[in-house]
Amino acid sequence: MKPQAPAADSDRGAADAAPVDALAAMQAALDDPQLPAHLRAQLERAADALRGERHRAALYREAFDAIPDLVTVLDEDGTVVEINRNGMGAHRRLREDIVGQPIHVLNPELPKEHLAPVWETLNRGGSYIIEVTNKRGDGTRFPVEVHSAGFVHDGARRIIAVARDLSSREESELRFRELVESIDRGLIVQDDALRIVYANSAAMSLLSLHNGESIAEELRSGDWMVVDERGHELAPEHYPSRLALDSGAVVNSTVLGLYHRVRRELIWLSITAVPQFPPGGDRPHQVFALFSNITELKRDSALFDRAQALAQIGGWEWDAGRDRLYLTFEAQRILGRDPAPTRIEELIGCLLPLDRHRLRNTLERTLAGGRSLDLELQGLRADGSGFWVRAIADAGVGDVVRQVLTGTLQDITERKLEEEQLRIQARSDPLTGLLNRDAVQDELERRLDAFPHAPLAVLYIDLDRFKVVNDILGHAAGDRLLASAARRIRHAVGDRAQIARFGGDEFLVVCSLDGDPTHAERLADAILAIFGDAFRVDGEEFTITASIGIAQSPLDGRTAQQLIQSADVAMYDSKRRGRNSWQAFTPELAEQQLHRLQLETHLRRAVHNDEFHLVYQPQVNLHDGRVVAAEALIRWRNRSLGEMSPDRFIDHAETTGDIVGIGGWVLHEACRQLRQWRDQGLAIERIAVNVSYRQFLGDDLGHTVAAALAEHGLPGSALELEFTERVLIEDAPDTVRTFARLRELGVSLSIDDFGEGYSALNYIRRLPIHGLKLSQLFVQGVPDNQSDVAVCQAVTGIARSLGLGLVAEGVETQRQRAFLRELGVLIGQGFLFAPGLAPDELRDYCLAQTPH
Questions:
Q1: CA pair distance 77, 156, nearest whole angstrom
Q2: Structural element, H or E, at residue 805
């Protein structure tokens, strides 16, 4: 119940007049014998309630006025809403001169923002104590000590301030002691020599002392040691009380520990030391030390700090209105700045320029819309080391005035470094350290997107004769040669371009042409020049040259794929012209590329559109002309392009990878046809099928062959796979596994066009190869060309010594047949016997050759 105004006696009478008249009226009504019973009962209850209310109001008012101190009640803004009788008497003012007025009427020296520290203390549940000088109505001043507490009345926050007149010091000190004995915070009073002259009950309790024990003797016993926050013993000259006495200023909220050596007990205290000055003195003569036990809080804080350190997550709070930034210890460690930032711009200054802009914009949006903040930011510490943080924050809910952001800072530096390392690894070629294929394509696409009109060039570099060296010395030496070639290209190019290993022995250089249209050509000349010196690998010297194709944007392409394809076309033209040179992309090459793309488009649809068909060239016994086998040869008939021979599309299909699908179709179709011939009674031992090196690079060739044989009910011996020597040098580990699988199936394996390539005899000896095919390049010159004769004799000798079968290709004359038969070659094929025949034509040919 809110106390009623005391005012003067005349005012009291006026205030009481209304309730007296009301009671008198009620009593007069109750004396009326005609009053109905139910109304009488209600009126009696109302009269009793009014008497009780009047009694309580009078009781509260009397109690309020009976308080010997000066008591005022203030609203939240510091306006006086009530004052007791002693307050009016002490200030020598009437109630109406005080109530409704700001507190400055009683204390004109109070600063403008005097309530801020009061509410700060009261909101923590504490009592605010201050000594001030009040003003009486006649203008005289008197000192008071004010104790303020907070409460809520009718939903509004209020302050009750109890002021004690210090004019009578002895009485005031007595009453002050009564007050400090009632609070739950420890209080000790020390003289200028730090001798304890007073300690309240709370102080005794905090030190586990009882009545009759001396706190001074306890602290002098030597059992207690004072330590700072880090646990180091604190020298007496650094005690808060000593500092307050020496400086004459308040020492606020210092955290100290009291360690009892016998009990091994550590108590953490938060101490505020307030110096006291004697009347007329300029140096403190004593000090008040007010302290609280924060042992549990300190333990929780230590655990929290430890958890933050382990998780590498710190906390931060920004009061945007006052631009005050608070960072936990872990957050300060992450940022690595000493002193730690205390304003938001100091925090932003720790970041890299781009992230400064991002954080500022996000902070503005977060404060304006009350949204959350979640950013990954990069910065620099004071020592120059970099860091990454994830900053998360939310705007304070319901606090539209202060606008406070509270959140966390997580150190993600290690994760970012790992991601960067993985990104570098994913973008780098492990052998040369250059960019890899995917990385250079991404980088080229990015540059074209960002600067579509800025001219740049792509140089496509292919090493000439690399596979020869790779085959002779092996893959390890080949890798060392590639690494050495990469170093030479990097040296020739310098930092004027980006370099990538595009695959195998192919490299890509991307350079800008701004202000220098001949830059790409000059780089190409520098690369060719640096390849002029021989390479030394494993003690051997090799001359490796390069063929280079150049394409420029936007003339030769507007996308990464177009530019690379154009440079690739130019490189192949350079290689065709004689190698060790460069060739720029031209309109004529563009037309060739158009035909190539057109060919690629039709080729990818050819199997689905049933455009391929097979012809079969018989392989005959050179002695009696009997057909022993047939080689399946692919043909392509396209509606737009017409009849296409293999030399027009096979190389392209191998480049694009379409050969794998085409080769699978050939295997199934050849096996189907052989099954049909056998069902018709033809005694053809096997069907020979050409297999591309690309089919050997995957793991599907063995499965495809097995499926084709099983589908048509053929044994493995009914199929012979012919492959070029490139299969042997492309990828030895995969080749060995594929060969082993095919050998398990019983399939025959032959090297086609033997002698044209550079395969080492080691491969032929080590791998399960069953036969060789003598290239028509050498057969066509026999028996007159002695070089061709020598090659044929050598190949025949190799086959005989290794126990391999031998088939001669391109037999066109009887003289060639006779020479080969005399040389010991048993099987041959060529136009002397028949060209590639349709299935029915081959059947008729076989029947015609069968003796009757």
A1: 11
A2: strand 805-808
Distance CA 373, CA 534 (A): 61
Model's pTM, two decimal places?
A: 0.43
Integer-rounded Cα Rg, in Å, for the chain is 51
In three-state form (DSSP H/G/I as H, E/B as E, the rest C), the secondary structure along 606-655 is HCCCCCEEEEEEEEEECCCCCEEEEEEEEEEEECCCEEECHHHHHHHHHH
- Which two tokens mark 203? 């102080």
Is beta strand 313-319 parallel, antiparallel or unpaired with respect to 404-411? antiparallel
> What is the crossing angle of helices 466-473 and 475-493, to 10°?
140
Q: Which among 662, 795, 775 has a CA at the least distance from the CA of 724?
A: 775
Helix (H) or strand (E) holding 303: helix 295-311
CA-CA-CA-CA dihedral for 85, 90, 92, 93, to nearest 10: -50
Of 184, 203, 189, nearest to 126 by C-alpha is 184
C-alpha angle 195-200-206 in degrees, rounded to nearest 5: 95
**How far is 24 from 125, CA to CA, in rounded Å?**
46
- Amino acid at the residue 536: R
Number of Cβ within a 10 Å radius of residue 498: 19
Question: Which among 104, 103, 83 is positioned nearest to 94, based on CA atoms?
Answer: 83
pLDDT at 813: 94
* Cα→Cα distances 716→685, 688, 707, 723, 728, Å: 11, 12, 11, 17, 22
> pLDDT tens digits, residue range 273-315?
999 888 777 888 898 888 888 777 666 555 555 555 555 678 8
What whole-number distance in Å separates Cα of residue 258 and Cα of residue 290? 15
Question: According to the model, what pLDDT value does residue 534 have?
Answer: 83
User: Do 434 and 428 contact (CB within 8 A), yes or no?
Assistant: yes
Average pLDDT over residues 169-189: 71
3-state secondary structure string across 75-122: CCCCEEEEECHHHHHHHCCCHHHCCCCEHHHCCCCCCCCCHHHHHHHH
Of the candidates 91, 44, 48, the residue with the CA atom closest to the CA atom of residue 71: 91
Long-range contacts of residues 142-151, Cβ cutoff 8 Å, at least 24 apart: 142/90, 142/166, 142/167, 143/167, 144/70, 145/172, 145/176, 147/179, 148/118, 148/121, 148/122, 149/122, 150/119, 150/122, 150/123
Give CA–CA dist 532/673, Å, rounded.
54
> Which pLDDT score is estimated for 555?
86
Give burial (CB, 10 Å; 0-12/13-18/19+) of 500: buried
How many Cβ atoms sit within 10 Å of the Cβ of residue 76? Answer: 12
Q: Are 644 and 589 in contact (CB under 8 A)?
A: no
Q: What is the pLDDT of residue 3?
A: 42
Distance CA(781)–CA(755), nearest Å, equals 14
Structure-model confidence comparison of residues 166 and 249, the more confident one: 249
11: part of which helix (H) or strand (E)?
Answer: helix 9-31
Chain centroid, CA 95 distance in Å? 69
Token pair, residue 292, equals: 């609280």
Rounded to an integer, what is the distance from CA 55 to the centroid of its chain? 73
Largest CA distance in the chain: 161
In the prediction, which pLDDT does 627 show? 93
Angle at 679 between CA 677 and CA 684, to 5 degrees: 40
**pLDDT higher than 90, residue 634:** yes
